[in-house]
Design goal:
The complex is a heterodimer of chains A (167) and B (161). Chain A contains eight helices and two strands, in the order H-H-H-H-E-E-H-H-H-H. In chain A, strand 1 and strand 2 form a beta hairpin. By secondary structure, chain B is an alpha+beta fold. Chain B contains seven helices and nine strands, in the order H-E-H-E-H-E-H-E-E-E-E-H-E-E-H-H. The chains are: A mainly alpha (167), B alpha+beta (161).
Chain lengths: 167, 161
């Protein structure tokens, strides 16, 4: 995973993660487990106002391996009148959603400025130079949106079928 | 498993959404093949969030790219939708990405303003218009979005002529 993917999976800000890792004296690693841990630390500090050190300690307790319960009591006062309960099942659902987004959508960006069109002002020439088949586009324009989507559906079904056969 | 079944399921449950991404591009004439349906939904209405969550739960939606059974279980409900602004899901009906805003365009209201209604695959629904789709692709900034831009810009130029 990249640094950005880890931050997206954690649902946290990358700069915050880097700074917090420095404050905690913790080495920042970019993987699923760390993203899950940082995500919970972020929630506890940003949403509940816990100090960074307290949130880090609570996250370590809550995400300790082997816990099978869906709700974990991370801490309570001696009288038992106040306690901190983390709904782990709910947190894991949100984390999985963010992790999926990070893996599917957050592909590494190109460095530097966005590419400019080679030939300014003429989209058709630029597209032809890029390798776009203008004949295909012209024939698509001659169809109705319903016909275009019917064709897309047919082609997508063909690809799905081929993938199934080769799997 | 098809775009038709997903669009029909969403409209039957009266979910307020606009189709964006590859399917919208195909509706405008793009020849690129896509396997997932991208939608922007109205996240300001509780009823709409609940309706969408109910449809997705009915389709056994699960985050895409994650091994099933990796953790306890994924809870597909309105709270998950509220807390994850972009969901990339695999379902019994096909892959679907749901989001509450589109980069370069804005939240659902802005997306709807820049959409047009079409009838296709036996369903009437809204798709993001071509100029906004180009803005969204440019704002997303990913290599695969940039790769799609020349074709979309050529489509826009051909439409104007």
């Amino acid at each position: 995973m990249t640094a950005r993917q880890t931050a997206v999976a954690a649902g946290a800000d990358l700069k915050w993660m880097v700074n917090s890792a420095g404050l905690l004296g913790r080495r920042l690693r970019y993987n699923r487990e760390q993203a899950k841990w940082w995500g919970l630390v972020w929630l506890l500090t940003e949403q509940l106002g816990l100090s960074l050190r307290a949130a880090a300690a609570v996250s370590t307790v809550v995400l300790r391996g082997g816990s099978s319960s869906t709700q974990v009591t991370a801490g309570a006062d001696p009288s038992g009148s106040a306690s901190l309960i983390v709904d782990l099942a709910r947190y894991e659902s949100i984390f999985l959603a963010n992790l999926s987004r990070a893996l599917v959508h957050e592909t590494p960006r190109r460095r530097g400025r966005p590419p400019q069109r080679g030939i300014k002002g003429d989209a058709l020439t630029a597209a032809r130079h890029y390798g776009v088949d203008l004949g295909l586009i012209r024939s698509a324009i001659g169809r109705t949106p319903a016909e275009r989507l019917a064709l897309l559906e047919k082609n997508a079904a063909f690809v799905r079928d081929m993938r199934k056969r080769t799997a | 498993m098809s775009f038709a079944s997903m669009l029909s399921g969403l409209t039957k449950k009266k979910v307020r959404f606009v189709v964006v991404g590859g399917v919208a591009a195909a509706a405008h004439g793009s020849s690129r093949l896509t396997n997932d349906l991208d939608i922007c939904y109205d996240a300001d209405t509780t009823a709409n969030i609940e309706a969408l969550a109910s449809v997705l739960a009915g389709w056994q939606a699960y985050p895409r790219g994650i091994e099933a059974g990796l953790t306890r279980s994924f809870i597909m409900d309105d709270r998950t939708l509220r807390n994850a602004p972009i969901l990339t899901l695999t379902t019994s009906e096909g892959d679907i990405d749901v989001m509450d805003r589109i980069a370069g365009v804005g939240p659902y209201d802005a997306v709807r303003r820049h959409s047009e209604r079409i009838s296709a695959l036996g369903v009437r629904f809204r798709v993001l218009d071509l100029p906004s789709l180009i803005k969204a692709k440019r704002a997303a900034g990913r290599p695969r979005d940039f790769d799609h831009l020349p074709e979309l810009e050529a489509l826009l130029a051909l439409r104007k002529t």
